[in-house]
Backbone:
């Protein structure tokens, strides 16, 4: 059977922009859900990495949009990025150039049934073990979504917990987490508040996807925390965090968690400046908040 060919020179054009945009998304859905690879000619340069990521063959590219030259994508470079384990990073970078790319990549991650070129090898992501979170498209990577699915089934044996912020040093525990563990009793579970994964209980530190992110995401933290604390109703929660404190507070409010069971060491809002959470003064405050 001959391979299907899509010629994007010229691009589909509708009466209204809404029609045009919709036709572009249908093209991406076809690229994503078709079992056999498609040969793509005249591909907008900014679209090329996503088209290739979806398992298709990009034969030729051209600059359809003013931002296309920024992508610097060629068929040869796509292959090089795949071999280097950087194809997904390239796709996310290029997605910022066009709104339909942001939309299509989100649907690829959470809606469409796809077989990604580089998604899994023997059940594992074929990519650098430290995922770089550089824009909103990063938050829906397959490994992050799988983690969130698994977290829904987690039920803690602990009755008390201390919420601490994420840290750049991974895998955990980072120095901050080790310092907190030395202060709190073994009966307290430590959970990480993070904008990428939402909540990471201590038991999951060894299996969580590793990432490096400079992007805060209050919404992800709040939504995941709401579900987590509903599923795991601790008798006492200490929030030892200046960052994401407001997200945790809102999550607990949404499930009508008893305020008498929560201690916010630095208040239930995000401070304008980071607290030194490893200082003796603050660690004393944490120790004083521990209940028998």
Residues:
């Amino acid at each position: 059977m001959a391979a299907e060919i899509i010629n994007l020179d010229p691009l589909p054009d509708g009466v209204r922009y809404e029609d045009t945009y919709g036709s572009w998304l249908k093209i991406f859905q076809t690229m994503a859900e078709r079992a056999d690879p498609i040969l793509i000619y005249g591909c907008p340069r900014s679209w090329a990495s996503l088209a290739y990521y979806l398992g298709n063959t990009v034969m030729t590219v051209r600059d359809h949009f003013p931002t296309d030259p920024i992508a610097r994508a060629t068929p040869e470079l796509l292959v090089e990025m795949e071999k280097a384990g950087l194809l997904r990073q390239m796709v996310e970078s290029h997605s910022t150039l066009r709104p339909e790319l942001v939309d299509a990549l989100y649907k690829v991650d959470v809606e469409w049934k796809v077989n990604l070129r580089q998604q899994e090898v023997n059940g594992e992501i074929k990519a650098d073990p430290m995922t770089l979170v550089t824009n909103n498209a990063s938050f829906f990577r397959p490994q992050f979504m799988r983690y969130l699915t698994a977290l829904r089934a987690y039920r803690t044996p602990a009755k008390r917990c201390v919420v601490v912020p994420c840290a750049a040093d991974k895998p955990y525990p980072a120095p901050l987490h080790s310092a907190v563990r030395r202060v709190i009793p073994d009966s307290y579970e430590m959970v990480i508040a993070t904008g990428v994964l939402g909540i990471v209980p201590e038991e999951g530190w060894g299996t969580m996807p590793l990432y490096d992110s400079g992007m805060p995401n209050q919404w992800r933290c709040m939504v995941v925390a709401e579900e987590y604390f509903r599923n795991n109703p601790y008798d006492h929660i200490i929030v030892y965090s200046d960052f994401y404190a407001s997200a945790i507070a809102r999550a607990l409010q949404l499930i009508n968690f008893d305020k008498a069971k929560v201690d916010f060491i630095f208040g239930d809002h995000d401070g304008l400046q980071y607290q030194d959470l490893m200082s003796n003064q603050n660690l004393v405050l944490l120790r004083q908040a521990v209940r028998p």
The CA atoms of residues 246 and 268 lie 5 Å apart. The chain has eleven helices and twelve strands. Residues 119-123 have pLDDT under 50 and may be disordered.
